[in-house]
Amino acid sequence: MHPVRKKRLFVIMIIAIILSTAIGLVMYALQQNINLFYSPSQIALGEAPRNASIRAGGMVVKDSVKRHSENLSVSFDVTDFQHKVTINYRGILPDLFREGQGVVAQGKLNDEGVFEASQVLAKHDEKYMPPEVTEALKNANGIVKKRP
Amino acid sequence: MNWTWFHKLGSPKWFFLWSKSYALPLFFLGSVALVVGLIWGLAFTPADYLQGNSFRIIYIHVPVAILAQSCYLGLGFSGLIFLIWQMKIAPIFIQSIAPIGAVMALIALVSGAVWGKPTWGTWWVWDARLTSVLVLFLLYMGIIGLKNALDDVALANKSVAVIGAVGLINLPIIKYSVIWWNTLHQGATFTLTEKPAMAAEMWIPLLISVIGMYCLVASLVLWRMQSIILEREHRSNWVKQEVMNNGF
Questions:
Q1: What is the pLDDT of residues A98-147, one digit of tens each?
Q2: Residue A69 and residue B59: Cα distance in Å, rounded?
Q3: Contact yes or no for B111/B59 (Cβ under 8 A)
C-alpha cells in the first residue's frame, strides 16, 4: 500500500479505537439508565428506588393473576425465575398479556415492596409458531405428563 | 495480492460501463421476489399462535430493518475507503444510498410502531433498540443534509465520509442492544448458529422478501449512481459517446 494511504489508515484506526473505547465506557456507565426496566432480582436486592417512577419487567407467574370481581383491578406476580415481585394494576391489559409471558410495567414501588403500576406493556419473545403446532406441542406434553 | 479490480472500481467511467447491465435484471429479480414473498407471507402463511395476524407485519418490518442497517454498513465503509484511498466512486455511492437507507429506516420505525401498538400496548418506548434505530435514521438525515448544505463538493464529500464512518459504531449497538440491555423489543429470531425460532412456513417467505428487498435496493442504488456519474462527467468524451450510442 502507498505510504500516505498506510498512514491515513493508521490514523483512522487509532481514531476508531479511541472512539469505540469512549463510547463503550459511556455506555457502561449509563448501563442502568439504558436498561428499560428493573428485573425482580434487582428490586428484591434493593437496587430499584422506592416511590420513584420506574419500570419493572419479568415473566407473569402461572396462576398468580387475580382479577377484582367488580372493577378492573388486577394483581399478578412477575419473576425472573429467582425472585418475585407483586404488581397491582387498574386498567385494561394489552391483548398479549398472558400467564407465562413477559411484561414491562411502569409505576412505583411502594414501601411494602409491592409495585403499583400505571401502565402495563406486553413483551413478546422471539418465537413464532402457527396455532396447529402449538396445539400439537401441548398435546404431546399432555401425553408425556400422563405417563407414570 | 492483485488490487487492480479495486482501483478500477474507483473510476466512475469503469464503474458506469461495468454496472450498466446489472440494474434492470436486479430490479426485476427483486420485484418478483418481493411480490412472491409478500403475498405468501401476508395471505397464505398461518397466523401466529399468540400474536394472531398482526405478526404478519414482519414481512415488511424485518426486510426494511435489515436493509436500513446493511445500507449504512456500505455507506460507512465507503466513507472509510474515501478517507483512505480517495476513491472517486465512494462519495457517489454515499450520496446514492443515503436517501434509500433513510427511507428504509423510516419504514422500519413506522411499521414497528404499528406492530408495537397491538402487541406491546404502546406505539413507542425509549428502549435501547428503538432509540438506536432512531439514531440511525437521524444519521442518514444528517448525512443527506450535510451533503446538500455544503456547496464546496470536496469539503462536502470529506465531511459526509467522516460522519458516515463514525456512525458505523451505531450498528453493533443496534444489533446487540437487545442482548446488552433489558429492552421491550424481543431478541433476534434468526442467528447464524442456531435453528430459527420460527416455523419454516413462516420464515421461507420472509427470506424471499429479504432477498427481494436486497435486489431492489441494489438496483435503485445502481441507477442513482449511474445518473450521478453521467451528470458529473457530462463534459467528458466517454459520456458523449455513451449518449450518442445508446440515446439516453
A1: 888 888 998 888 888 889 998 899 888 777 777 776 676 666 655 444 43
A2: 41
A3: no
Give residue limits of the domains in chain B.
23-246
Contacts of A31 in chain B (CB under 8 A): 180-181
Q: How far is CA A13 from CA A17, A30, B155, in A?
A: 6, 25, 22
Alpha carbon distances (Å) from A90 to A55, A119, A120, B123, B175: 16, 9, 10, 20, 36
Residue A117's H or E segment, with its range, is: strand A115-123
Contact partners, residue B242, CB within 8 Å, separation at least 6:
B16, B230, B248
d(CA B127, CA A91): 23
Whether residue A124 lies within 8 A of chain B, CB to CB, comes out as yes
Report the predicted TM-score, pTM, of the whole model to 2 decimal places: 0.85
Residues A19-51: b if buried by 16+ CB within 10 A, e if exposed: eeeeeeeebeeeeeebbbbbbbbbbbeeebeee
A51: closest CA of chain B, how far (Å) = 21
Chain B within 8 Å of A30 (Cβ-Cβ)? no
Task: Pick the closest to residue B185 from B75, B61, B5 (CA basis).
Answer: B61
**A71-86: pLDDT as tens digits:** 888 999 998 888 889 9
Option in B46, B127, B202 nearest A36 (CB): B127
Q: What end-to-end distance do the CA atoms of chain B give, in Å?
A: 38
Q: Give the ipTM.
A: 0.72
